[in-house]
Amino acid sequence: MPNQIYYQLCGCCGPLRPRYKRLVDNIFPEDPKDGLVKSDMEKLTFYAVSAPEKLDRIGAYLAERLSRDVFVKFANIEEDTPSYHRRYDFFVSQFSAMCHSTHEDPETCSRIRVAGIKGLQGVVRKTVNDELQAIIWEPQHMDKLIPSMLFNMQDNEDSERGREEDFLDKRENPASLAESCFRELLGRAAYGNMNNAVHPVLVHLDNHRLWDPNDFAVSCFRIIMYSIQAQHSHHVIQQVLSHLDTHSKNTPRVRAGIVQVLLETVAIAAKGSIGPTVLEVFNTLLKHLRMSVDFELGDGSRRNSASSLSSTRTKESEERIVQNAIIQTIGFFGGNLPDYQRAEVMMFIMGKVPVYGTPCHTLDTVKIGHQGTKRIQAMLLSSLIMVTSGFKCKTMCAGLPVAFLEPLCSISLMEDSELRQLVLEILHNIIDRHDNRAKLRGIRIIPNVAALKIKREKISKQDVVFMKKHGQQLYRHIYLGCKEEDNVEKNFELLFTALALITIELANEEVMIDLIRLSIALQDMVLANEENMPMFIRCGIMALVAAYLNFLSQMIANPPFCQHVSKVIEMRNLDAPYLLPEHVFREKCVLPDALDRDDVGLYFQTADLAEALSVPGYNVERLAIPYIPQVTEEDRLPRRKSFVDTISLQVDILSNSLPDQSQLAEEITFETLKKAIDTTGLEEQERERRRQVMEKFQKAPFEEIAAHCESKANMLHDRLAQIFELTIRPPPSPSGTVTVTSGHAQYQSVPVYEMKFPDLCVY
Fold it and tell me: Is the whole model's pTM more than 0.85, yes or no?
């Protein structure tokens, strides 16, 4: 105890310090530039030889002074002239080894690691800004520096999971010091050094199997993204994308871990500069999405035994984790892009969605089958929902260009209710520019639309032009989408929201008249029931029409119109509640066997609506013209399924163009001759048909007539092109001829020696 007090007092007064400490202190100059004092070093050496019992104390104190000063002060020296011969290979190796110390004493181990990290920090500070020492960024050094820091950061993560550690000063905590040094190193990385700095991180995560779970991996890349300069972010994204490619055949959880790290990386990069990697990110992610579906469904032939069935289910659930992670990444990345880039990404993703009638260049639909193709379509559409969320296009022509609208509407008519729901949600995201969709959630009879505080602006001229060009296309797909037999409540809810959003965002007086005609046409279709629809679908359509006309009447704010709609709804409440959304979509709603067409009080009457709208601004004469969806080439094709037909169109054309052999071989009997000769009633039918055509061209709006004629012209042009392709062949050429099969251009060259030349050309 007296000795301890003595040494404490001596520490306060230099002359009273032990001699070995004074000798060690003397070898360090006041100015580090001067280097160690040679004469004092000789004195220290002589003292150590003379008093070998003090050697341990001398070494311990010397180590303390070295760890306390030399990599701090030496690193901060600003040299007047650069050093051409100085190298740091030895220091990097030794300090890295110290960072991996596994000394049995935890305190000693921590001190050694801290000393090693400080040493590496000194080397970094000394070299990163020295152009002559660019060698420090080379892989042989980065492969030692980076893992040494990550090892200590990882060790801290592991200890925090198991137990609570006492608080240590950050300067003496290996994990905190390593993180600080890691951030400093990345912050000093130049454009050409980013790859060498990031690659060792990926290798370390691979070697230590830190992708599953990936908490530490996510933490590392957050540090990386916040430490580097913003303009270098795309380098990191490219590195992670490449690493995902190298692990394309790894376990689903490893791939999901890498994708989640990419999500964190992209989330930070999207706020700054992402460079030219936008489409590359989406292309890589979509490729891995298809691969994941392929892995999940490609082994269907081996699902026979019970053991293989259970393992397959486990694999499917793990692949779903990968797929969900990819979709989240696509959606988050797309959602943070500016609108002009987001529109480009929307087009890019839509080009990857398999659509009936278009060749699929990137998907082997035969291999993954109907179910796999449906999954791809659903996931890509889900990605589009996330990308379009919050999208605010200035004009609808920019949000729904023809190249995007046509394939989207084609998918909306597939025989799959889930796909149709996804398409409608995409349309909602694009059309809803004032965030009104949440107020319209749920199909119902809204008692007071004004209480919803709908936000709207006057329709722009550009949107008026859009509805003149593409309004009929939207109406057609809503009309046809209503009568799909697999519709459920959500389909009708989304159809109601679509009609309401079109009214809010795109409807002037002319469009409102068209929407009323569409509603009445849906009602007439249900009453006629020419397609023998299920009663639930018929009642659902009636409920949809009631909910929409109730909403529209209050938006128009025309009292007679509102009175007629309210009267019909009251009658239905009393006599036919199954025709209202609040009743028909209940679980135990009792449906009728038939609908009474003669009870006119239950249905909306065109004459009453036209009389109510006999005010300036509304062309009520158009209400008398029944809405008929325009005919397109899709109506001549078989019913669309989610599976993509990639077989050559030439086969379909040839098979359709040839007459049926059974028709050629039809037996000619007396009855067939009688039918051919009997013309009773044909002239009257022809006159009625001509009258309807004349009336349609006299009263129908110009847009409908133009759309009808355009569709017929397109059909004629397509047929002629197909005939010419089959009949007209260009002469053979050694440079090759082009043939189009399933949308693919194929070049077929003919060797010169097989060509037949005219006699005058041969000598």
Answer: no
